[in-house]
Amino acid sequence: MSVDVELDEGVATLTLNRPETRNALSDGFLEELVDQLQALDRSREVGCIVIAGQQRFFSAGADLGELSAREPIEIFLGRRAELWRAVREVRVPLVAAVSGHCLGGGCELALSCDLIVASRTARFGQPETGLGLIPGGGGSPLLVRLVGRAVAADMVLTGRRLSAEEAHERGVVARLSDEGDWLDQARAVAAEIASRPRVGQLLAKQVLSAALELPLSGGIAFERASYQVALASSDAREGLAAFTGNRDPVWRGR
């Protein structure tokens, strides 16, 4: 297994574990990750998922040996685009725990999560054009939406890498941590997310994701419709009753 799974009180940690390749994302590796994500997404016991790498690298990107050995038609007919879409369609909130190099497909994997907790050693980059390629897992449009066209163009066209501090300033990274604390902090953030009522969290993630795709009026309309669904949930009624009754709520996930 190339993905280690750990469960702890509503938080699942998926650790990328191909250190000999610096967690290069081969098709099989990405498929294994997606299988684990989808299985956890179906579990009502999991409220948040952390995707983590190692101290020196989150992921160096695509498996270039595998890529160079394939004919273009094999790549075109393969499942890679479907696998990337499956990552982005996971309903449970995803937290990327990043330390060290986070490049190419690794950067795209982190960007596909809902938020990133990064060590100050983290470096984010899309170096594909240096090999005659371009990002293929959503890196270009995701970066344009996060950091603007100019910085995204600088990263893609020149291979410029963002430091953890600049990534934080630009809104790519949600929280910075000290070098030895990145995974613990990511798990703490995930535990906070998982502690909140499930229905509302799933709906909130959908609304945030839709905001990237829809015009402002459409995003507001989608949020309003999702709010009505949340209000009709048992957990929302319990939350309101607990607040007015000055007691702790008991969440049931429905």
Proportion of beta-strand residues: 15-25%
Count of discrete structural domains: 2
Distance between the termini: 34 Å
| DSSP helical segment count | 12
Taken in chain order, the helices and strands follow as EEHEEHHHEEHEEHHEHEHHHH
Query: What's the main sheet like?
Result: 6 strands, mixed
Uncertain stretches of 5 or more adjacent residues? none
Query: What is the name of the CATH superfamily of the largest domain?
Result: 2-enoyl-CoA Hydratase, Chain A, domain 1
Describe what you observe in this structure.
The chain has 254 residues and is an alpha/beta fold. The protein has two domains: 3-194, 2-enoyl-CoA Hydratase, Chain A, domain 1, CATH 3.90.226.10; 198-244, Lyase 2-enoyl-coa Hydratase, Chain  A, domain 2, CATH 1.10.12. Helices cover 49% and strands 16% of the residues. It has twelve helices and ten strands. It has helices at residues 27-42, 64-68, 72-77, 80-88, 105-111, 139-147, 149-158, 164-169, 182-194, 198-213, 216-231, 234-244; strands at residues 3-8, 11-16, 48-52, 57-59, 94-98, 101-103, 115-119, 123-125, 162-163, 175-177. Strand 2, helix 1 (27-42) and strand 3 (48-52) form a beta-alpha-beta unit. Helix 6 packs across helix 7. It is globular and about 60 Å long.
